[in-house]
Design a protein that fits this description.
With 202 residues, this protein is α+β, with helices and mostly antiparallel strands. The chain has one domain: Pyruvoyl-Dependent Histidine Decarboxylase, Chain B. The protein is built from four helices and eleven strands. The strands form three sheets. A five-stranded mixed β-sheet has the order 4-7-11-3-6. The protein has a four-stranded antiparallel β-sheet with strand order 5-9-8-10, covered by helices on one side. It catalyses: L-arginine + H(+) = agmatine + CO2.
Length: 202
């Protein structure tokens, strides 16, 4: 019987050695933006430009903040990327062409006190929710997901303030933060897109 090491994979007919650490993000930054255009796709492109992430091949991923992941300012994170790079993101995107509607997008993050433990990222897109409400929603959602990994009990119908008190009682969740983008669609019947993203750096 041939035993194949678990870090070897077949790719394109050849064996490829993969270091798992290469696939674990070591840093992230958060960003947001908005754009308007008569074409829906073009408005999305403009929103990505506003967020400074239009020149990367973005790969949507799920909601885990890796252990020991460094949280950077946007400018510092962008310095570690190059155009065309494949970049994993937790991305929220909301679009509308109805005058007066308010698209909103947000990503929240819950960071554990023990940085050897993973945290959570949460994304939400919506129409008609204000920036503060969006911020509260995604931060509490991320904190709730992290709290459940510690076995904390909570009432899913409880108010945000009540749940925040629960988070403050348990010292394993050190902080939450978020990035939020909202806009109001103008009278020109153009598409308006808002994006919010946590950009993970491999």
């Amino acid at each position: 019987m041939i035993v194949v090491p678990d870090d070897l994979f077949i790719f394109g007919g050849s064996w490829l050695k993969v270091n798992r650490d290469d696939w674990t993000p070591h840093a992230l930054f958060m960003t947001c933006g908005q754009g308007s255009h008569r074409e829906k796709l073009a408005s999305f492109e403009l929103a990505l430009r506003d967020a400074s992430i239009e020149c990367y091949n973005l790969i949507p991923v799920s909601s885990i903040l890796p252990p020991r992941c460094e949280i950077l300012e946007r400018s510092a994170g962008l310095e570690q990327l190059q155009p065309g790079q494949v970049v994993p993101v937790v991305l929220a995107r909301s679009q509308s062409a109805v005058p007066g509607e308010q698209p909103g997008a947000a990503v929240g993050m819950a960071v554990p006190r023990d940085r050897e433990h993973y945290g959570y990222l949460s994304e939400h897109h919506v129409l008609g929710m204000g920036a503060q409400e969006l911020e509260d929603y995604v931060e509490d959602l991320a904190a709730e997901m992290l709290a459940t990994t510690y076995g904390l009990e909570f009432d899913p119908e409880a108010s945000w303030d009540e749940k925040r008190e629960l988070w403050s009682i348990d010292n394993r969740i050190v902080r939450t933060r978020s990035v939020v983008e909202t806009a109001t669609v103008g009278p020109e019947h153009c598409w308006t897109t808002v994006v919010a993203a946590a950009v993970l750096i491999l």
